[in-house]
Amino acid sequence: MIIDFGPLEPRERLEVILFRVTWMDVDEVLHGDEAIEMTHPRPLFDPRIRLPRWAALAGLFLLVGLMVQNLALRSRKAPRGAA
Known about the structure:
- It is built from 2 helices and 2 strands, in the order βαβα.
- The protein is mainly α.
- The chain has a domain at 52-76.
- 0% of the residues are buried.
- Keywords: Membrane, Transmembrane, Transmembrane helix.
């Protein structure tokens, strides 16, 4: 569909609003019901790191295992008593 509004004057603007409707609601919207305005898309670059839950839990268990192993080695090297 091509809509020609002609030339715009300085400081004049044209605003287009897109609406999202399901195929079942098209008939109702065409006969006067209100449509739902589309939401803004997410930005393309998201700086947050996405980790699956299983990877985060595996990393946590790995750290806990290393801490337990470190404590076990320290207790084994500690002097048991003065002779």
